[in-house]
Input
Amino acid sequence: MRPFTYARPESAAAAVRAFMAAGAGAHYIAGGTSLYDLMKLDIEKPQHLIDVTTIRGLDAIETNGERLRFEALAPMSAVATDKVVLRDYPILAEALWKAASQQLRNMATVGGNLLQRTRCLYFRNGAGGTSVGNTYPCNKREPGSGCAAIGGLDRGQAVLGQSSSCTAVSPGDWPVALVALDAYVEVLGAGGSRAIPIAELYRLPGSTPNLEFTLQPGEMITAIVVPKTKAGRHSTYHKIRDRESYAFALASAAVALDMDGDTVTRARIGLGGVATKPWRATAAEALLAGKPLTPATALAAGHAAFADAKAGQHNGFKIELGARTVADALTIAAARNRS
Ligand SMILES: Cc1cc2nc3c(=O)[nH]c(=O)nc-3n(C[C@H](O)[C@H](O)[C@H](O)COP(=O)(O)OP(=O)(O)OC[C@H]3O[C@@H](n4cnc5c(N)ncnc54)[C@H](O)[C@@H]3O)c2cc1C
Output
Protein backbone atom coordinates (compact mmCIF):
# COMPACT_ATOMS: atom_id res chain seq x y z
CA MET A 1 0.00 0.00 0.00
CA ARG A 2 1.34 3.42 -0.94
CA PRO A 3 0.83 6.19 1.64
CA PHE A 4 -1.66 8.98 0.93
CA THR A 5 -3.33 11.80 2.85
CA TYR A 6 -7.10 11.84 3.27
CA ALA A 7 -9.43 14.84 3.60
CA ARG A 8 -13.22 15.13 3.95
CA PRO A 9 -14.24 18.69 3.00
CA GLU A 10 -17.74 19.88 3.85
CA SER A 11 -18.54 21.76 0.63
CA ALA A 12 -17.70 21.56 -3.06
CA ALA A 13 -15.78 24.84 -2.81
CA ALA A 14 -13.75 23.48 0.11
CA ALA A 15 -13.08 20.31 -1.89
CA VAL A 16 -11.69 22.31 -4.79
CA ARG A 17 -9.55 24.37 -2.41
CA ALA A 18 -8.25 21.17 -0.80
CA PHE A 19 -7.46 19.69 -4.22
CA MET A 20 -5.60 22.82 -5.39
CA ALA A 21 -3.66 23.04 -2.11
CA ALA A 22 -2.65 19.37 -2.37
CA GLY A 23 -1.35 19.83 -5.91
CA ALA A 24 -0.10 17.01 -8.13
CA GLY A 25 -1.19 13.59 -7.01
CA ALA A 26 -4.59 14.75 -5.67
CA HIS A 27 -7.70 12.77 -6.56
CA TYR A 28 -11.34 13.17 -5.65
CA ILE A 29 -12.92 10.00 -4.36
CA ALA A 30 -16.66 9.30 -4.48
CA GLY A 31 -18.02 5.72 -4.29
CA GLY A 32 -14.47 4.40 -4.67
CA THR A 33 -15.57 1.43 -6.79
CA SER A 34 -13.24 2.40 -9.61
CA LEU A 35 -10.44 4.36 -7.94
CA TYR A 36 -9.76 1.95 -5.04
CA ASP A 37 -9.74 -0.89 -7.56
CA LEU A 38 -7.04 0.86 -9.62
CA MET A 39 -5.06 1.73 -6.49
CA LYS A 40 -4.99 -1.95 -5.55
CA LEU A 41 -3.69 -2.74 -9.04
CA ASP A 42 -1.04 -0.01 -8.54
CA ILE A 43 -2.26 1.78 -11.65
CA GLU A 44 -3.55 4.89 -9.87
CA LYS A 45 -1.14 6.19 -7.23
CA PRO A 46 -2.84 9.15 -5.56
CA GLN A 47 -0.89 10.97 -2.88
CA HIS A 48 -3.91 12.90 -1.62
CA LEU A 49 -7.51 11.67 -1.55
CA ILE A 50 -10.27 14.28 -1.28
CA ASP A 51 -13.37 12.37 -0.20
CA VAL A 52 -16.44 14.24 -1.45
CA THR A 53 -19.07 11.79 -0.21
CA THR A 54 -20.05 13.77 2.88
CA ILE A 55 -20.77 17.04 1.07
CA ARG A 56 -24.38 17.86 1.89
CA GLY A 57 -26.93 18.08 -0.93
CA LEU A 58 -24.57 16.75 -3.59
CA ASP A 59 -26.65 13.58 -3.93
CA ALA A 60 -29.96 15.27 -4.82
CA ILE A 61 -32.14 14.13 -7.74
CA GLU A 62 -34.37 16.82 -9.28
CA THR A 63 -36.81 15.69 -11.97
CA ASN A 64 -39.69 18.15 -11.62
CA GLY A 65 -38.08 21.23 -13.17
CA GLU A 66 -37.45 22.16 -16.79
CA ARG A 67 -34.48 19.81 -16.87
CA LEU A 68 -33.46 16.61 -15.15
CA ARG A 69 -30.73 17.36 -12.67
CA PHE A 70 -28.67 14.74 -10.90
CA GLU A 71 -26.12 15.95 -8.38
CA ALA A 72 -22.81 14.18 -8.90
CA LEU A 73 -22.93 12.06 -5.75
CA ALA A 74 -26.38 10.58 -6.39
CA PRO A 75 -25.94 6.80 -6.28
CA MET A 76 -26.45 5.03 -9.61
CA SER A 77 -29.14 2.85 -7.99
CA ALA A 78 -31.12 5.88 -6.76
CA VAL A 79 -31.22 7.51 -10.21
CA ALA A 80 -32.07 4.18 -11.88
CA THR A 81 -35.13 3.76 -9.65
CA ASP A 82 -36.38 7.35 -9.63
CA LYS A 83 -40.05 7.27 -10.65
CA VAL A 84 -39.81 10.00 -13.31
CA VAL A 85 -36.64 8.51 -14.79
CA LEU A 86 -38.26 5.07 -14.95
CA ARG A 87 -41.45 6.35 -16.56
CA ASP A 88 -40.15 9.03 -18.92
CA TYR A 89 -36.51 8.12 -19.60
CA PRO A 90 -36.05 4.35 -19.89
CA ILE A 91 -32.83 5.10 -21.81
CA LEU A 92 -31.34 6.50 -18.57
CA ALA A 93 -32.81 3.93 -16.18
CA GLU A 94 -31.67 1.02 -18.36
CA ALA A 95 -28.16 2.43 -18.89
CA LEU A 96 -27.76 2.51 -15.11
CA TRP A 97 -29.33 -0.77 -14.08
CA LYS A 98 -27.55 -2.69 -16.83
CA ALA A 99 -24.23 -1.38 -15.45
CA ALA A 100 -22.27 -3.32 -12.83
CA SER A 101 -24.07 -5.15 -9.99
CA GLN A 102 -26.65 -3.96 -7.45
CA GLN A 103 -24.02 -3.70 -4.71
CA LEU A 104 -21.78 -1.61 -6.95
CA ARG A 105 -24.66 0.61 -8.08
CA ASN A 106 -25.51 1.30 -4.44
CA MET A 107 -21.97 2.57 -3.79
CA ALA A 108 -21.09 4.10 -7.16
CA THR A 109 -22.10 7.65 -8.04
CA VAL A 110 -23.41 9.06 -11.31
CA GLY A 111 -20.49 11.53 -11.33
CA GLY A 112 -17.81 8.92 -10.68
CA ASN A 113 -19.23 6.69 -13.40
CA LEU A 114 -18.41 9.33 -16.01
CA LEU A 115 -14.73 9.31 -15.07
CA GLN A 116 -14.01 5.60 -14.67
CA ARG A 117 -11.03 4.40 -16.68
CA THR A 118 -10.90 1.81 -19.42
CA ARG A 119 -11.17 -1.93 -18.77
CA CYS A 120 -8.59 -2.65 -21.54
CA LEU A 121 -6.81 -5.71 -20.17
CA TYR A 122 -3.40 -4.38 -21.12
CA PHE A 123 -4.10 -1.17 -19.21
CA ARG A 124 -5.23 -3.09 -16.13
CA ASN A 125 -2.84 -6.05 -16.24
CA GLY A 126 0.40 -4.29 -16.70
CA ALA A 127 1.42 -2.33 -13.68
CA GLY A 128 4.34 -4.37 -12.45
CA GLY A 129 3.12 -7.79 -11.47
CA THR A 130 -0.63 -8.28 -11.32
CA SER A 131 -2.57 -11.47 -11.91
CA VAL A 132 -0.87 -11.96 -15.26
CA GLY A 133 2.52 -11.22 -13.80
CA ASN A 134 3.82 -9.32 -16.81
CA THR A 135 4.33 -5.69 -17.60
CA TYR A 136 2.64 -4.80 -20.85
CA PRO A 137 3.30 -1.53 -22.63
CA CYS A 138 0.33 0.82 -22.49
CA ASN A 139 0.38 4.42 -23.70
CA LYS A 140 -2.59 5.26 -21.51
CA ARG A 141 -0.89 4.02 -18.34
CA GLU A 142 2.66 4.95 -19.30
CA PRO A 143 2.86 7.49 -22.14
CA GLY A 144 5.28 6.52 -24.88
CA SER A 145 5.59 2.88 -23.83
CA GLY A 146 3.53 1.50 -26.75
CA CYS A 147 0.24 -0.37 -27.06
CA ALA A 148 0.21 -4.11 -26.48
CA ALA A 149 -3.43 -4.34 -27.59
CA ILE A 150 -2.54 -3.45 -31.17
CA GLY A 151 -1.65 -6.80 -32.69
CA GLY A 152 -2.46 -8.46 -29.37
CA LEU A 153 -5.62 -9.88 -27.80
CA ASP A 154 -7.95 -7.22 -29.12
CA ARG A 155 -11.39 -8.88 -28.94
CA GLY A 156 -12.68 -6.20 -26.59
CA GLN A 157 -11.03 -3.22 -28.25
CA ALA A 158 -12.63 -0.29 -30.06
CA VAL A 159 -13.56 -0.25 -33.73
CA LEU A 160 -14.38 3.48 -33.74
CA GLY A 161 -12.18 6.40 -32.68
CA GLN A 162 -9.00 4.44 -32.13
CA SER A 163 -5.50 5.70 -33.00
CA SER A 164 -2.10 4.12 -33.62
CA SER A 165 -1.41 4.78 -29.92
CA CYS A 166 -4.53 3.33 -28.31
CA THR A 167 -7.60 1.23 -29.05
CA ALA A 168 -9.04 1.09 -25.52
CA VAL A 169 -12.83 1.16 -25.22
CA SER A 170 -14.59 3.79 -23.14
CA PRO A 171 -16.27 1.54 -20.55
CA GLY A 172 -19.28 3.39 -19.13
CA ASP A 173 -22.92 2.77 -20.08
CA TRP A 174 -24.37 5.90 -18.47
CA PRO A 175 -22.35 8.41 -20.56
CA VAL A 176 -23.58 6.73 -23.76
CA ALA A 177 -27.19 7.45 -22.83
CA LEU A 178 -26.26 10.98 -21.73
CA VAL A 179 -24.43 11.74 -24.97
CA ALA A 180 -27.52 10.68 -26.96
CA LEU A 181 -29.68 13.08 -24.93
CA ASP A 182 -27.28 16.08 -25.25
CA ALA A 183 -26.69 16.19 -21.51
CA TYR A 184 -24.00 18.29 -19.89
CA VAL A 185 -22.07 18.34 -16.65
CA GLU A 186 -21.63 21.28 -14.33
CA VAL A 187 -18.14 21.50 -12.90
CA LEU A 188 -16.52 23.63 -10.23
CA GLY A 189 -12.85 24.50 -10.35
CA ALA A 190 -10.37 27.06 -9.12
CA GLY A 191 -11.56 29.46 -11.84
CA GLY A 192 -15.27 29.08 -10.99
CA SER A 193 -18.02 26.94 -12.48
CA ARG A 194 -18.74 26.01 -16.09
CA ALA A 195 -20.85 23.60 -18.12
CA ILE A 196 -19.35 20.93 -20.41
CA PRO A 197 -21.47 18.97 -22.89
CA ILE A 198 -20.97 15.25 -22.21
CA ALA A 199 -19.73 14.81 -25.78
CA GLU A 200 -16.92 17.29 -25.01
CA LEU A 201 -15.98 15.80 -21.65
CA TYR A 202 -14.11 12.98 -23.43
CA ARG A 203 -11.02 13.17 -25.65
CA LEU A 204 -10.15 10.91 -28.53
CA PRO A 205 -6.90 9.06 -27.78
CA GLY A 206 -4.84 10.50 -30.66
CA SER A 207 -1.17 10.50 -29.65
CA THR A 208 -1.97 11.28 -25.98
CA PRO A 209 -4.33 8.52 -24.78
CA ASN A 210 -3.25 9.22 -21.20
CA LEU A 211 -5.34 12.42 -21.40
CA GLU A 212 -8.90 11.09 -21.34
CA PHE A 213 -11.04 13.97 -20.09
CA THR A 214 -11.22 17.70 -20.73
CA LEU A 215 -11.48 18.62 -17.04
CA GLN A 216 -8.85 21.03 -15.78
CA PRO A 217 -6.81 20.00 -12.70
CA GLY A 218 -9.00 20.32 -9.62
CA GLU A 219 -12.29 20.60 -11.50
CA MET A 220 -14.98 18.63 -9.78
CA ILE A 221 -18.21 17.45 -11.40
CA THR A 222 -21.04 18.82 -9.28
CA ALA A 223 -24.09 17.88 -11.37
CA ILE A 224 -25.34 16.19 -14.53
CA VAL A 225 -28.10 18.02 -16.38
CA VAL A 226 -30.33 16.43 -19.03
CA PRO A 227 -32.64 18.56 -21.21
CA LYS A 228 -36.17 17.21 -21.03
CA THR A 229 -37.46 15.66 -24.24
CA LYS A 230 -40.60 13.76 -25.17
CA ALA A 231 -38.33 11.35 -27.03
CA GLY A 232 -37.32 10.06 -23.59
CA ARG A 233 -40.52 8.04 -23.41
CA HIS A 234 -39.65 6.37 -26.71
CA SER A 235 -36.18 5.28 -25.82
CA THR A 236 -34.03 2.36 -24.73
CA TYR A 237 -30.51 1.41 -23.74
CA HIS A 238 -29.78 -1.91 -25.41
CA LYS A 239 -26.64 -3.67 -24.14
CA ILE A 240 -25.02 -6.82 -25.50
CA ARG A 241 -22.44 -8.50 -23.27
CA ASP A 242 -20.75 -11.84 -22.74
CA ARG A 243 -22.59 -12.44 -19.46
CA GLU A 244 -26.10 -11.13 -18.91
CA SER A 245 -25.88 -10.93 -15.08
CA TYR A 246 -23.27 -8.21 -15.24
CA ALA A 247 -20.48 -7.35 -17.60
CA PHE A 248 -19.20 -4.44 -19.62
CA ALA A 249 -20.73 -3.95 -23.06
CA LEU A 250 -19.42 -5.67 -26.16
CA ALA A 251 -21.77 -3.33 -28.01
CA SER A 252 -24.54 -1.07 -26.82
CA ALA A 253 -26.91 1.46 -28.33
CA ALA A 254 -28.75 4.28 -26.59
CA VAL A 255 -31.70 5.36 -28.72
CA ALA A 256 -34.41 8.01 -28.28
CA LEU A 257 -36.90 8.72 -31.05
CA ASP A 258 -39.26 11.49 -32.04
CA MET A 259 -41.85 9.90 -34.31
CA ASP A 260 -44.86 10.93 -36.32
CA GLY A 261 -46.78 7.69 -36.71
CA ASP A 262 -44.26 5.21 -38.07
CA THR A 263 -41.99 7.95 -39.41
CA VAL A 264 -38.90 9.01 -37.52
CA THR A 265 -38.77 12.78 -37.30
CA ARG A 266 -35.60 12.77 -35.22
CA ALA A 267 -33.38 10.01 -33.89
CA ARG A 268 -30.74 10.31 -31.18
CA ILE A 269 -28.27 7.41 -31.10
CA GLY A 270 -25.30 6.79 -28.82
CA LEU A 271 -22.91 3.83 -29.07
CA GLY A 272 -21.04 2.06 -26.29
CA GLY A 273 -18.60 -0.85 -26.04
CA VAL A 274 -17.26 -0.18 -29.52
CA ALA A 275 -15.55 3.22 -29.37
CA THR A 276 -12.79 5.03 -27.53
CA LYS A 277 -15.27 7.53 -26.14
CA PRO A 278 -19.06 7.65 -25.78
CA TRP A 279 -19.99 7.83 -29.45
CA ARG A 280 -22.75 9.75 -31.22
CA ALA A 281 -23.90 7.97 -34.40
CA THR A 282 -24.74 11.07 -36.43
CA ALA A 283 -24.72 9.34 -39.85
CA ALA A 284 -27.30 6.85 -38.61
CA GLU A 285 -29.41 9.65 -37.16
CA ALA A 286 -29.34 11.53 -40.48
CA LEU A 287 -30.25 8.41 -42.45
CA LEU A 288 -33.40 7.88 -40.39
CA ALA A 289 -34.76 11.43 -40.44
CA GLY A 290 -38.07 11.50 -42.32
CA LYS A 291 -38.09 7.74 -42.95
CA PRO A 292 -40.46 5.06 -41.68
CA LEU A 293 -38.90 2.80 -39.09
CA THR A 294 -38.88 -0.64 -40.72
CA PRO A 295 -36.53 -3.60 -40.18
CA ALA A 296 -34.71 -2.52 -43.35
CA THR A 297 -34.25 1.15 -42.37
CA ALA A 298 -33.26 0.13 -38.83
CA LEU A 299 -30.53 -2.18 -40.15
CA ALA A 300 -29.40 0.41 -42.72
CA ALA A 301 -29.04 2.91 -39.87
CA GLY A 302 -27.05 0.33 -37.88
CA HIS A 303 -24.67 -0.15 -40.79
CA ALA A 304 -24.37 3.62 -41.29
CA ALA A 305 -23.33 3.92 -37.64
CA PHE A 306 -20.36 1.65 -38.36
CA ALA A 307 -19.44 2.86 -41.86
CA ASP A 308 -16.12 4.25 -40.59
CA ALA A 309 -15.35 1.33 -38.27
CA LYS A 310 -11.98 -0.41 -38.49
CA ALA A 311 -11.34 -3.80 -36.96
CA GLY A 312 -8.17 -5.32 -35.54
CA GLN A 313 -7.40 -9.05 -35.51
CA HIS A 314 -10.14 -10.40 -33.24
CA ASN A 315 -12.78 -7.68 -32.89
CA GLY A 316 -14.24 -7.59 -36.42
CA PHE A 317 -17.42 -9.21 -35.08
CA LYS A 318 -18.18 -5.97 -33.22
CA ILE A 319 -19.00 -4.17 -36.47
CA GLU A 320 -21.93 -6.40 -37.44
CA LEU A 321 -22.88 -6.94 -33.78
CA GLY A 322 -22.91 -3.18 -33.24
CA ALA A 323 -25.01 -2.55 -36.36
CA ARG A 324 -27.56 -5.13 -35.25
CA THR A 325 -27.57 -3.74 -31.71
CA VAL A 326 -28.50 -0.34 -33.13
CA ALA A 327 -31.22 -1.91 -35.30
CA ASP A 328 -32.68 -3.81 -32.32
CA ALA A 329 -32.58 -0.71 -30.13
CA LEU A 330 -34.41 1.30 -32.80
CA THR A 331 -37.10 -1.37 -33.01
CA ILE A 332 -37.53 -1.45 -29.22
CA ALA A 333 -37.72 2.34 -28.95
CA ALA A 334 -40.17 2.59 -31.86
CA ALA A 335 -42.46 0.00 -30.27
CA ARG A 336 -42.49 2.08 -27.09
CA ASN A 337 -43.42 5.07 -29.22
CA ARG A 338 -46.61 3.33 -30.29
CA SER A 339 -47.60 2.20 -26.79
C1 LIG B 1 -16.98 -5.61 -11.19
C2 LIG B 1 -17.38 -4.30 -11.81
C3 LIG B 1 -18.26 -4.28 -12.88
C4 LIG B 1 -18.63 -3.06 -13.45
N1 LIG B 1 -19.48 -3.05 -14.53
C5 LIG B 1 -19.81 -1.87 -15.09
C6 LIG B 1 -20.66 -1.82 -16.22
O1 LIG B 1 -21.14 -2.84 -16.72
N2 LIG B 1 -20.96 -0.60 -16.74
C7 LIG B 1 -20.48 0.56 -16.21
O2 LIG B 1 -20.80 1.64 -16.72
N3 LIG B 1 -19.65 0.54 -15.15
C8 LIG B 1 -19.32 -0.64 -14.58
N4 LIG B 1 -18.47 -0.67 -13.53
C9 LIG B 1 -17.84 0.58 -13.10
C10 LIG B 1 -18.62 1.30 -12.03
O3 LIG B 1 -19.85 1.72 -12.57
C11 LIG B 1 -17.75 2.48 -11.63
O4 LIG B 1 -16.70 1.94 -10.84
C12 LIG B 1 -18.48 3.52 -10.84
O5 LIG B 1 -19.54 4.07 -11.57
C13 LIG B 1 -17.54 4.64 -10.43
O6 LIG B 1 -18.23 5.52 -9.56
P1 LIG B 1 -17.62 5.85 -8.13
O7 LIG B 1 -18.52 6.85 -7.51
O8 LIG B 1 -17.37 4.61 -7.34
O9 LIG B 1 -16.26 6.50 -8.59
P2 LIG B 1 -14.83 6.56 -7.86
O10 LIG B 1 -14.17 5.23 -7.93
O11 LIG B 1 -14.95 7.19 -6.52
O12 LIG B 1 -14.11 7.59 -8.83
C14 LIG B 1 -13.85 7.29 -10.18
C15 LIG B 1 -13.02 8.42 -10.78
O13 LIG B 1 -13.79 9.61 -10.85
C16 LIG B 1 -13.19 10.66 -10.08
N5 LIG B 1 -14.33 11.33 -9.47
C17 LIG B 1 -15.34 10.76 -8.77
N6 LIG B 1 -16.29 11.66 -8.50
C18 LIG B 1 -15.88 12.83 -9.03
C19 LIG B 1 -16.44 14.14 -9.12
N7 LIG B 1 -17.64 14.42 -8.60
N8 LIG B 1 -15.76 15.11 -9.78
C20 LIG B 1 -14.55 14.84 -10.34
N9 LIG B 1 -13.95 13.63 -10.26
C21 LIG B 1 -14.63 12.63 -9.64
C22 LIG B 1 -12.22 9.98 -9.13
O14 LIG B 1 -11.13 10.81 -8.81
C23 LIG B 1 -11.79 8.77 -9.95
O15 LIG B 1 -10.74 9.15 -10.82
C24 LIG B 1 -18.11 -1.85 -12.92
C25 LIG B 1 -17.24 -1.87 -11.82
C26 LIG B 1 -16.86 -3.08 -11.28
C27 LIG B 1 -15.90 -3.07 -10.11
The first strand starts at residue 5 and ends at 7. The radius of gyration is 20 Å.
